[in-house]
Amino acid sequence: MRRVLILTASYGSGHNSAARSLALAFARDGAAVDVVDHFRELVHPTFASATRALYYRVLRHAPALWGMAYGVGDWIASDSPATFGATHLGARRLAALLRRTSPDAVVTVHATPAAAMSFLAEHGELVPPHTTVVTDFVAHAQWIARHVDRYCVAAEEVRHEFIARGIPSERVIVTGVPVPPAFETWIDPGSARAALGLSAHVPVVLAMAGTQGSFGRLPDVTRALVDAPRPLQAIVVTGTDARLARTVERLTAATRVRNLGYTQDVRTLMAAADLLVTKAGGMTLAEALAAELPLLTYGSLPGQERQNERFASRTGIALVARTRGDLGRLLDRALAEPRLLDDLRESMRRLRRPDASRRIARAVLEPDAVLE
């Protein structure tokens, strides 16, 4: 039985979601899978929790600072001395883990363990074939390392970006971003609406901002939904943030907008909706693509989300609102012009890859196979 090691990180929910989806796909193909949180298990749990708290604090209170750091990082090679060793944190324990478990392949879904794997190879450590799965819709310098054997990316446009940065074309394959298995199956919108108690005759708008909820601008979105002049049904998913849930509950009292906290059944919500209003997190974009759910992005954070948003607008899968005024106008336009939503869906059909996890597992376990 082949053994696969997946290295992830708990910064946001997207990396771990991708790791879980990949683990299921590898298991379906008969492989034994170990999933390891690089920062918690190979660096130190205190370091992981402290840096995650700092990251979240910056995103909430000084997002422009994160955007600046992300931009600077894109000008620095992942093995540059200018990273002050950050990109090979945990490398010593990773080497010990590889020697102890002897995996046949390593898959990374976060940039730091990818760079740590490359660091080990650079310094003569015997490492198994290494695939990195890029969970955003953009090439960034910190994802790029000399000794990555294979890059799995979201779309052909992203593949071109990696090639333009010097990665040989044969090392970059388009697989899509791994999404939960529920997205591999089509769900009838009428059945999804019935399950949620929604009318089949009034447009449905879904609003989300990731698991944390508070990193987006859901109160603005909620007000726009409440004030929308056209008939609609709306569900606002506030995630794990109890304070945000109370705010949205207050705004939606006695309105046609439903407040929903954390849910694991995102697939049914997306099947029922005509439009998703969200910030442009990588996993959210991938899931919306798989569900063919048109996007209106708003409140995307500086850094990778803004880059994801640019990808979404360039490829014609999203409308982009920069201001609250834009949000209201674009929401009204989307509801007034069914043809516009049809055009967005058509663009999504070109890019959607709901079977991304299966494709990646095949690429890792059968490297000579040609993906179709």
CATH topological fold name of the largest domain: Rossmann fold
Q: Helix coverage percent of residues?
A: 40-55%
* Rg over alpha carbons: 21 Å
Q: Total number of helical segments?
A: 16
N-end to C-end Cα span: 26 Å
Tell me how many strands there are: 12
Low-confidence stretches: none
Q: What order do the helices and strands follow?
A: EHEHHHHEHEEHEHEHEHEHEHEHEHHH
In CATH terms, the superfamily of the largest domain is: Glycogen Phosphorylase B
**Class from secondary-structure proportions:** alpha/beta
Output mean pLDDT: 92
Commentary on this structure:
The protein has 372 residues and is an alpha/beta fold. It folds into two domains: 3-179 and 354-365, Glycogen Phosphorylase B (Rossmann fold, 3-Layer(aba) Sandwich); 185-351, Rossmann fold (3-Layer(aba) Sandwich), CATH 3.40.50.2000. Helices cover 47% and strands 13% of the residues. The chain has helices at 14-28, 38-43, 45-61, 63-73, 91-101, 111-122, 156-164, 189-196, 218-227, 242-252, 266-272, 282-291, 304-314, 324-336, 338-351, 356-365, and strands at 3-8, 32-37, 105-108, 130-133, 150-153, 172-174, 204-207, 233-237, 257-260, 275-278, 295-297, 318-320. A six-stranded parallel β-sheet has the order 2-1-3-4-5-6, sandwiched between helices. A six-stranded parallel β-sheet has the order 9-8-7-10-11-12, sandwiched between helices. Helix 7 (156-164) links the parallel strand 5 and strand 6 (172-174). Helix 8 (189-196) packs across helix 11. The chain starts with a strand and ends in a 7-residue tail after the last helix.
